[in-house]
Amino acid sequence: MTELLQTITGFDLWHLALPVVSARDHGIGRVEGSCEIVVLRLTAEGGAQGFGEASPWSVFTGTPEATYAALDRYIRPLVVGKRVADRAQIMEQASRAVAHCTEAKAALETALLDLSGHITAQPVWAFLGGKARNTIPLSCSIANPDFDADIALMQRLRDDNVGLIKLKTGFKDHAFDVMRLERIAQDFPEFNVRVDYNQGLEIEQAIPQVLDVAQFKPDFIEQPVRHHHYDMMAQLRGMMDIPLLADESVFGPEDMTRAAREGICDGVSIKIMKSGGLTRAQSVARIAAANGLMAYGGDMFEAGLAHLAGTHMIAATPEITLGCEFYQASYFLVEDILETPFHVENGQVIVPDAPGLGLRPDLSKLDHYAKQRSF
Ligand SMILES: [Mg+2]
């Protein structure tokens, strides 16, 4: 069947724990051992299938257990029996049925779009307004508590022609941050460097430490303080000429509207896992652009399926001009879940033109890494 009017008949879930190659420290917490994601598979009556990924992080967006329950118990009955074409209605009902759980909604919209793409033989970006770009510059984060291991990673990134790195700061102490910035400036001058505190600074530390780091002239400094400290974000922004970006302070279009009104940032990290889907992420980008703010495509601790969803979203969103951070599948996971590798070439993510998301997960890997399944 080729039409979108067919019914959705299957709703299957996997909760996965994917091993990672190293620890990573962010201001608000550490990831170690594995990262946990939830994969959703929708099946239509004609047999076509669509996949979506939810990539929660307990200290940032929510837990994998809550994501799984939101999909399994509360969203499943809103989806099975509906027509594939009714995507907007399904998303609206899901938003009303479950508060928060934005990663679950991102997985749902991704799977609906992938399914629509496979039924109609069109890439996901075609459903999001069409394609604005063929490649997206990749940024990789430097976040290992073992800085020697990150030096080896930066050598590998340089060999791979990745031009953007983001130094994660604020998880140990200021001297460690300054030492790493000095070392990067000296040994890796070819990188464009961004700095991200992930809310790591207390209010009383923020002004002196951020102004000190600003002297290294990074491309931008991101989210030094807790997400609700809008006043401190606005104050910091007024004290330096380095752009200040918001991440944890801005989840969806509602936060973006407030952030622009209160002048807390010069730009924003846009993530489908925060906004609750691809179309809401596009709304964040448009509100940012309308207010003269810049944007890049961030991500959570994701596997390739979520990277693909973000790639299609950014491909169709010209307002997102500062690249993306879809590095985990290539540089952080021991093994990704896709059948063929997420496509990065010369430091650029390549936007797929094949139907749906363009690549599919390997079902044997989903089963291998599953902690829980529900079919
Ligand atoms: Mg961030």
UniProtKB/TrEMBL annotation:
Mandelate racemase/muconate lactonizing enzyme C-terminal domain ranges (all copies): 147-243
GO biological process: amino acid catabolic process; peptide metabolic process
Residues forming coiled coils: none
Superkingdom of source: Bacteria
Annotated keywords: Isomerase, Metal-binding
Signal peptide range in chain numbering: none
PROSITE patterns, alphabetized: MR_MLE_2 (PS00909)
Family recorded in the similarity comment: Belongs to the mandelate racemase/muconate lactonizing enzyme family.
Protein's name according to its UniProt entry: Muconate cycloisomerase
